[in-house]
From TrEMBL:
Coiled coil: none annotated. The keyword Transmembrane applies. It comes from Leptospira idonii. This is DUF3995 domain-containing protein. Keywords: Membrane, Transmembrane, Transmembrane helix.
Length: 152
């Protein structure tokens, strides 16, 4: 096997492992919050500018649905790179990866007010963490998803 192919396989393994770890971690946190956990909750919801109220308060079903979506993301990534076999056509996996990369890219850009790199509301705990962790992580997930498509 040529060294080039080994490097590609290593990169695919590294990127898919990173994405799966991040998705499982985020899913786990959402399950924790869904069942009453409080750690980190204050930092993950955007606040209304004039008050300390969150923009929205997700219920149990919404919180657990987000966890399920991230777990599906793990299966998508692992199936796309052929670490697991699912009875899903490769074209669906391909477009699923494009969709995933696009969604996370759009999340990193944001809606220009409360969320993303170009948000106008600053000075809240959420905006602090969004600037330093959430938006950069979304951009990284997007780039890694597109890199996997390119490398595969």
């Amino acid at each position: 096997m040529r060294i080039y192919r080994k490097i590609i396989l290593f990169l695919v393994s590294l990127l898919s492992s990173f994405l799966s770890f991040v998705f499982l971690f985020i899913a786990g946190i959402h399950i924790y919050w869904g069942f009453g956990g409080e750690w980190g909750k204050d930092a993950v919801l955007p606040k209304i500018e004039t008050s300390d109220r969150p923009l929205f308060i997700p219920g149990l079903a919404a919180t657990l649905l987000v966890a399920v979506v991230f777990i599906i993301g793990v299966f998508l990534v692992q199936s796309f790179v052929s670490n697991i076999t699912l009875p899903i056509p490769s074209s669906i996996l391909y477009y699923g990866m494009i969709f995933q990369g696009t969604v996370f890219f759009l999340r990193s850009i944001g809606e220009f007010r409360y969320v993303g790199f170009f948000k106008t509301q600053k000075g809240t705990l959420f905006s602090y963490w969004d600037d330093r962790l959430f938006s950069p992580l979304c951009l990284t997930v997007s780039l890694f998803s597109f890199a996997l498509i390119y490398l595969k």
